[in-house]
Amino acid sequence: MTATAETVNRGVQRLHAAFARAGAEGRAAFIPFMTGGYPDAGRFLDVAGELLSRADIMEVGIPYSDPLGDGPTIQRASEQALAGGTSTRRTLDLVRELRRKYDTPLVIMTYVNPIYAVGPAEFMRLAQAAGVDGLILPDLPPDQDLEIADLAAQHGLGVTFLIAPTSTPERVELVAGACTGFLYAASVTGVTGTREGSALGEVPRMLALARQHAQVPVVVGFGVKDAATARQVAQVADGVVVGSAFIGAVEAGQDVGALADEIAAGCRR
Disulfide-capable partner of 134 in 147, 158, 187, 195 (CB 3.0 to 4.6 Å)? Predict the structure, then answer.
């Protein structure tokens, strides 16, 4: 495949346009997450559809057997999806099905091992064909990335890396400079999951530092669970990421659409 300027910029442009639309409407972008194939393929498509109809951008996680950055809720979802036969390729097939119905930007969140298991070039080809707009790579330090970011760009995918409250100023500068889709700031040190109390913590300080270097939107995740915590994050971030709360709602048989409406309302500034 020969990359064209249009191909190289496609996912990046779609992601940045979504943030721009939300900002023009006085909102932080609402970015829900759902593990691919959870609780099963059919129900995943239903739940993802409910989220996509309300989202500015949606993250789909590739289920993985050793998700070191995920808390117990997303770990359980990954285990159930894997037990039901959801593979990396199957997750991308499910994303392709979503793309047929929804134009909302779609981002894959994956650890690096599933990419290498498929083969980086083949993974990027499949992702592009499925209609993916970007990748979030929580365990790939950008200074150790030898090919994945370049391959993603060749296939029109924006790339996102993470920072945390423990990231040094030098690390924040490095990570911010490597992101082409958006920069993901974890609100706490540790794993994903809902928490008691404020969702902000060290976020304002971390975002002030990140914005000195980032040329892309900055989003915050980890710990956002309801309208109140979304509202806190929306005051300082360009986007609000919510994952464990939706998986927990599916586990409990609750109305995911109602929770999504509540949190999306909290993203207004």
Answer: 158
Using alpha carbons, select from 101, 108, 109 the residue that is nearest to residue 53: 101
Give the Cα separation of 93 and 108 in Å (integer). Answer: 12
Is 103 exposed, middle or buried (CB count within 10 Å of its CB: 0-12, 13-18, 19+)? exposed
Catalytic residues: 59, 70
Q: Per the confidence metrics, is the pTM higher than 0.85?
A: yes
Give the per-residue pLDDT at 219. 97
The dihedral formed by the CA atoms of 34, 40, 45 and 49, expressed in degrees to the nearest 10: -50
CATH architecture of 5-266: Alpha-Beta Barrel (3.20)
The answer to which of 57-71, 79-93, 148-162, 170-184 has the lowest mean pLDDT is 57-71
Measured between alpha carbons, how far is residue 74 from residues 78, 88, 106, 188, 262 in Å?
Answer: 6, 16, 19, 16, 21
CA atoms within 13 A on the CB side of 43: 15
pLDDT tens per residue, range 82-120: 999 999 999 999 999 999 999 999 999 999 999 999 999
Domains in the chain: boundaries: 5-266
Asked if the model's pLDDT at residue 223 lies above 90, the reply is: no
CA-to-CA separations, 145 to 142, 150, 170, in angstroms, rounded: 5, 9, 17
Strand runs labelled E in the chain: 29-35, 58-61, 106-109, 134-136, 158-160, 162-163, 183-186, 218-221, 239-242
